[in-house]
């Protein structure tokens, strides 16, 4: 008996294709970043000396090209991460997969329980696309009913349990639903696994 292969249009296959695209983008970002490192530069390092002349110790053309490409790739990565979050949402919650009436009704039942108060540059939260002011209605499997009182302890526990794993976040930004794929990790250059400050918040 032959094995039935998943359809190329299935959410699982879409997610795999997007993951492959994400890996390719991150690999190219790393390649471009190596150009900056070879010239002892980062995205903000001045390319002129104290007198305003181009630095002779830096390959300015290569550095400028790498910086432009990194910006483009970061934008591409943000878009792919959003698409991954939506694809994973379809896999784990098929009833919320499409922009149908059922999906719209499901959105209404999700209430804000937390707010992103600050995001550190270069952090996992920043890479996932989270922004200050985002109102969280779902964090992984957590919803408003998962919490009691003013504590976000269940969220902290979920993050700790999912280090280096994807967590899908659904949030509201300017009254629009946005999706993020957050990967808690250490070693990003700052404190904690997320690099953002999330506070308890409820809809008025």
Describe the protein in words.
- With 204 residues, this protein is of the alpha+beta class.
- It is 41% helix and 15% strand.
- It has 5 helices and 5 strands; from the N terminus they run αααβαβαβββ.
- The chain has helices at 11-38, 60-92, 101-109, 124-128, 153-161; strands spanning 114-119, 135-139, 167-173, 176-182, 196-200.
- A 5-stranded antiparallel β-sheet has the order 4-3-2-1-5.
- Helix 1 (11-38) runs antiparallel to helix 2 (60-92).
- Residues 1-6 and 95-108 have low confidence and may be disordered.
| Biggest sheet layout | 5 strands, antiparallel
The chain-level mean pLDDT equals 82
- End-to-end separation in angstroms reads 57 Å
Q: Which series of helices and strands comes N to C?
A: HHHEHEHEEE
List the total number of helices. 5
Which stretches are poorly predicted, pLDDT < 50 over at least 5 residues?
1-6, 95-108
Class of secondary structure makeup = alpha+beta
Radius of gyration: 20 Å
Quantity of strands, as a count: 5
Name its key features.
single chain, 204 residues, alpha+beta, 5 helices, 5 strands, 15% strand, globular, disordered N terminus
């Amino acid at each position: 008996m032959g094995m039935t292969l998943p359809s190329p249009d299935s959410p699982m296959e879409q997610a795999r294709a997007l993951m492959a695209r994400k890996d390719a983008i991150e690999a190219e970002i790393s390649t471009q970043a190596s150009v900056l490192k070879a010239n002892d530069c980062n995205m903000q390092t001045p390319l002129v000396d104290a007198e305003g002349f181009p630095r002779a110790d830096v390959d300015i053309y290569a550095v400028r090209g790498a910086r432009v490409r990194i910006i483009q790739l970061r934008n591409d990565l943000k878009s792919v991460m959003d698409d991954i979050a939506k694809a994973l949402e379809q896999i784990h919650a098929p009833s919320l997969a499409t922009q149908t009436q059922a999906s719209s009704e499901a959105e209404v039942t999700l209430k804000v329980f937390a707010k992103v108060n600050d995001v550190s540059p270069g952090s996992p939260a920043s890479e996932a696309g989270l922004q200050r002011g985002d109102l969280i209605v779902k964090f992984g499997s957590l919803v408003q009913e998962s919490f009691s009182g003013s504590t976000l302890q269940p969220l902290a526990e979920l993050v700790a349990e999912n280090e280096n794993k994807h967590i899908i976040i659904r949030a509201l930004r300017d009254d629009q639903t946005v999706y993020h794929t957050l990967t808690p990790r250490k070693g990003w250059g700052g404190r904690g696994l997320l690099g953002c400050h999330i506070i308890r918040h409820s809809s008025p």
